[in-house]
Amino acid sequence: MQATSSPPVSGLLRRAKLRHFLRTRRAQIAPEEVGLVHVERRRTPGLRREEVAALAGVGVSWYTWLEQGRDINVSEGIVNAVSNALRLPDHERAYFYRLTGHNPAPRPERRDRGGDQARMRALVEGWSFNPTYITDRYGGVQLASASAHALFGITPRDHNCLVKFFTDPATRRKYPDTDQVGRGLVAQFRAQSARFPEDPEFGRIAEWLGERSPRFAELWDCHEVDDPSQNVRRIALPDAGVVVFDRVVMRVPELPECLMVLYLSPPGAPRSAAPARELVDAHARGH
């Protein structure tokens, strides 16, 4: 198999991401985790290229080309084999698929949907008053509910969630789990960039933020990927203490580039916890 020449600019951007992603994932796997035992001391952490190639059942030269970002054809079977060798979780596997030009493999059907049903019920019942906003592909807020403005100070068209978090100390103080939230935002931004591999704006935003936030630069270099549909978010409010929300992220069919983010009172929350509407109303009255 031979590499082709003169790749388009979009292909170069995509393969640069692929190259960095594979290197960082390989470096995170200890040989002992995959049953490899070595006596000699290693100069670099993680697996070697030839070890990943052997685990995936592909040639060393071919895997080297893949990790170097050469313009080669990669089948879905090879993507799956390398994903297994690198022990990629579902969200990183989907990211890898997109970087190689394939649609992610469908996830196995889950039998127990009780948690999903509870979250959807809470979504339907609380749609009108829970903090809600819609972002563009880069995390820029396009629309926001009044409760989202009261809780987060979000002003549509003038608020980018990623930029605000890493450049505004007051915003970071709202989140007791600062490092976890920061990691999640960067990992989600990575996942979004794979959906639009031809868009250089992701790289420009990352470069701009990296110059202003050493922590962002560090997390961006880790190449972590996540595309969560639901997680828990703790927020510190001056008049209510630390409040726990179920943060739900949904894609909008009519706006394929956008994400809708909702903050709900978690299903099964103790009765002592005030509903989202009461918390937001009280916080708004304090402004």
Fold blueprint:
Blueprint: H1 9-27, H2 49-56, H3 60-68, H4 76-85, H5 90-99, H6 114-126, E1 132-135, E2 141-144, H7 146-152, H8 161-167, H9 169-173, H10 178-195, H11 201-212, H12 214-222, E3 230-237, E4 241-252, E5 255-264, H13 276-285
Antiparallel strand pairs: 1-2, 1-5, 3-4, 4-5
Largest sheet, strands/sense/barrel: 5 strands, antiparallel
What portion of the residues fall into strands of 2 or more residues? 5-15%
Total separate domains: 2
Give the number of DSSP strands.
5
Report the helical percentage: 40-55%
Q: Please state the overall shape, judged from the principal axes of the Cα atoms.
A: elongated
Q: What is the CATH third-level topology name of the largest domain?
A: Beta-Lactamase
- Which regions contain 5 or more consecutive residues with pLDDT less than 50? 1-9, 270-275
Number of helices: 13
Task: Output mean pLDDT.
Answer: 79
Rg for CA atoms: 21 Å
Which class do the helix and strand fractions yield? alpha+beta
CATH-level-2 architecture of the largest domain: 2-Layer Sandwich
Measure the end-to-end span. Answer: 65 Å
- Topology as H/E string? HHHHHHEEHHHHHHEEEH
Strand order, main sheet: write it out: 2-1-5-4-3
The CATH C-level class name of the largest domain: Alpha Beta
